[in-house]
## 1
Amino acid sequence: MDFDLSDELVAAQELARDFAEKEIGPTAAKDDKEHTFRRDLVSKMGELGFYGCVIPESYGGNGLGFLALALITEEIARVHSAMRVFMNMQVGPALTLLRFGSEELKKRWIPPLIRGESVGCFAITEPDAGSDVAAMRTTAVRDGDSYALNGSKIWISNAPVADSALIYAVTDRSQKHRGISAFYADLHQPGVSRRALDALGVHASPLGELTFENFRVPAGNRIGNEGEGFKICMWQLNQTRLSCAAGALGVARAAKEAAVSYANQREQFGQKIGQFQMIQDVIAQMVVHEEAARLLVYRAAWLADRGQPNNLEVSIAKYTAAEAAAYAADGALKILGAYGYSTEFPVERYLRDSKSYQIVEGSSNIQKIIIAQDALGYRKANR
Ligand code: GRA
């Protein structure tokens, strides 16, 4: 086992750290407070090649790999978690098209997604279908050379601003999960309405609802065969979950850094508060959870780079990193006291943003189900 990062990976990590600190950091508090969508940053991240890590050069990517993608995502999330969501919104659709799309779809959509020119999103969740993806109700009915989509997708990152979307819809209800199909669609066509939604955190990442009313999608925009959508969706989630786990790791690190820095300067009862064992207990746990999450995220990415199945490892990494982020942000807030609770300092943002990781891309409970059912031999995670 080699725990060293190659020079290439260190360079990617340093580039992302520098970019995050200089270009994202200075306005992070303002962007969060004002719920600003930073399309300029989506483009800049594209120009720097951040979305191209897992895309070959033939489609405009750089092929640096999944570990590079994880390292970059961690650096961005450490500075502002909302900005790492863009990584998934651009890369998730591009990667799914790369794996399952026709040559025409790949050529049409992958380059603008990874250059950050077409703002992407993916639409799985519905009002009555969250963890239970197979329960989705949005329909896609074939009519000549197009499909008519009807239904509603909710809690979709980028819904208010996206130019294009990876959409999952039911083409044959009688087939249950085997009757779901995947589509790539231009959202600037008639039949799409959007509603912005607000949430506890991740404010600079626009969230919303997409409603389709006789939204026409050309039949050539179907990804894979009819009925393959559920498997495509499970495959896609395995990729986006990994990047999400790397984001949680970034938040865990940011919260720990804030706690350590404060504990080293704040004095109470005649000494630095870092001298108190109750503070040390929290800091030790933050360090342990973060380091464990880092090794698990890197392992899952390393497996992907070797072309090996990693669903189980991704779920373990996502669960551990999400819980590490929530623990670290909660702990940092307690250590900083009023300064943690205050909206003038970033720790309360870390806490709000950390909670999202226990819900998105498969909740912590869903990850535990995947992990436990694999251990019990009920359902293999890697297949
Ligand atoms: O036997 P079969 O041929 O019918 O196939 C079954 C199974 O083998 C079928 O699907 C297959 N399958 C898979 N195939 C390949 C299942 N999992 C996989 C896989 N990983 N790879 C049905 O399988 P099943 O086990 O009966 O399915 P289920 O019980 O209906 O669902 C499984 C599960 C609960 C894990 C799934 O529904 C799930 O992952 N739910 C969580 C949904 C989720 O993650 N949503 C995320 C929404 S998007 C989002 O949060 C955006 C955030 C953006 C950001 O911040 O990054």
Note: The mean pLDDT is 98.
## 2
Amino acid sequence: MQTNKGRVTKDGIRIYEADDFAGMNVAGRLAAQILDDIAAHVFVGQTTAEVDRLITQMVVDAGATSATIGYKGYQHASCISINHVVCHGIPGEKQLKDGDIVNIDVTVIVDGWFGDTSRMYVAGKLSRKAERLIQVTHDALMMGIEAAKPGNTFGDIGHAIQVYAESQRMSVVRDFCGHGLGRVFHSPPNVLHYGRAGTGSVLEEGMFFTIEPMINLGRPETKVLADDWTAVTRDKSLSAQFEHSIGITANGAEIFTLSPSGKFHPTYTV
Ligand code: MF3
Ligand code: CO
Ligand code: CO
């Protein structure tokens, strides 16, 4: 049930209260725990349908609800995006191959609160260029989170991510963005992963949103396949993504989707 505590800024961004951080932490931790537990199931020969089936079971076992099953007609508990798939890859019967890099994105609902997180996995042996892409994407997200504090703007977050990714001769996807969340899945603002410092809405304590940069080794353009979900790089270059759900505190940001076992960074699985 939607409560109407708190207020909404002139840009339509809800300001949550101190108590609400606890709910987000529970939901975020479950999403992150599922991403921890799925790591052992990502290997050469595995199908993404089986990975999704396991995730569905983990959500059920936790007594939670998948936010993605039934969302705009989507039918799975995860998005699984391999190599040049940028995001919203649909789980299926294709087997993972040696060297595939894989983003798994899970959103759960616990007591009405949404936890949304994604990270990268590797099947088999990681190539040097994929390793660099994954490292840069991870670090770009963390730099975005560093910029997430009261008084800074959403442009500061996008700027931090863009400057870093482009300094590494990689590109930032423009066609998808992060989003407000809380008691809803997607709400204002759009959190762009590029931009100019000092532009956009000013961050305030109590804002909840995701940062989820998609970074490409080649050009930033994407297209959506005929299934209406799968987004790929137009130039077929490799793409990586990491996502955290965060809440703005008095002097920075609290990450709701921290990995309980410290497995967020994929070198763990290599
Ligand atoms: N979890 C994705 C996000 O980060 C949204 C997936 S919607 C789905 O916002 F329907 F594709 F699952
Ligand atoms: Co998201
Ligand atoms: Co997500």
Note: The pocket of cobalt (II) ion (ligand 2) is lined by residues 116, 179, 210, 212, 243 (CB under 6 Å).
## 3
Amino acid sequence: MTTQVLTERVKSLFKEKYGSAPLLVQSPGRINIIGEHTDYNDGFVLPGAIDRYIVSAIAKNDSTDQCRVLAADMDSEIQFSLSDVRPSEKGSWQNYVLGVVSEIGKRGVQLQGFDIVFGGNIPKGSGLSSSAALENAIAFGLNELFDIGMSKTEMMLLSQKAEHNFVGVQCGIMDQFASMHGKSEHVLLLDCRSLDFTPVTIDFSDCEILLINSNVKHSLADSAYNNRRKSCESGVGILQSVFPEIKALRDASEDQLSEVKEQMDSDTYKKCLYVVQENNRVQEAVKAIKNNDIPLLGSLLFQSHAGLEHQYEVSCPELDFLVEKARENSSIFGSRMMGGGFGGCTINIIKKGAAQAFVASVEEEYTLKFDKKPSIYNVSLTNGTSILESVKN
Ligand code: GLA
């Protein structure tokens, strides 16, 4: 569904259900060129917002504390009172919304009754961060509607807290950041410790970015994500006993890691080594992009995937297959799984005009092998969360 059609749909549903003229907010999904599972290690990432959105329509109602939220794509509506905001069933869409409302309450802000309709064209469970886009859309909308005065950075941090406290995923900041701060035609080199970021122009002249969705649904809430985070923390604990200055894996070098190798179990060592190496690859990738060295950038992507597959162990056979096929294709410079893992998309850097032939060749084999079809997305880099239409209009 195009974003225009989506917007019209959300708008007319709002009118039909709740009657008043809403504020319209759009919040994009994201890709990540490189830097996977580095964000919660205070490291670097290189994401960008894409032209796939959650659009939400939001307006105050007449009540002091009654709220209604309609998820248009699921045809599911909830009603709740602001005096009783609690997490809903695990895995439900409601926690993204309720989590944001709860975090705003924790800031001491007194909201009043409101209604929301939202819908999206970011494929769910595809590693394109539809959940962060939803959280940001709600935070941004409420901030505007109730004149809360939060900055974009405060809103993205609030969205992240909603995910920690209501969804139960101890995620890093990359997704909420990219969706909130995205910049058209750029990816953003983010230092996840200081939250400083630098836009990096993406203009691959004769190459483009191709996303292939394995259509394997990942479930980030699965303990695997939180477990990886714990492994990293336990690695840092061991490193600190010898190098007290190390506060997170971002501060550790491969040499320091090998000095404490004997004190770590082999799995923790492997996970920590991946993070240290991936963090270095982000810096190398930025240099490669600036020098327009696409072969180098591509090889960093392949290395990243190998690390995610063998060291960090967050890939799956479908993603490995897609990357392997990309590796065998001379029109593709680099490919890797993207996002939290266990499903979702691969990101590929491919020669312009070569996508169709590659997709045709891989699609048949993939379908035969895994009994499901992959999906293909062409995306453009876009601006972050913003108002589409204010109430005054
Ligand atoms: C998910 C999380 C992010 C990040 C990625 C892996 O998308 O939400 O914070 O950790 O996984 O890079």
Note: The pocket of alpha-D-galactopyranose is lined by residues 36-37, 39-40, 171-172, 174-175, 220, 339-340 (CB under 6 Å).
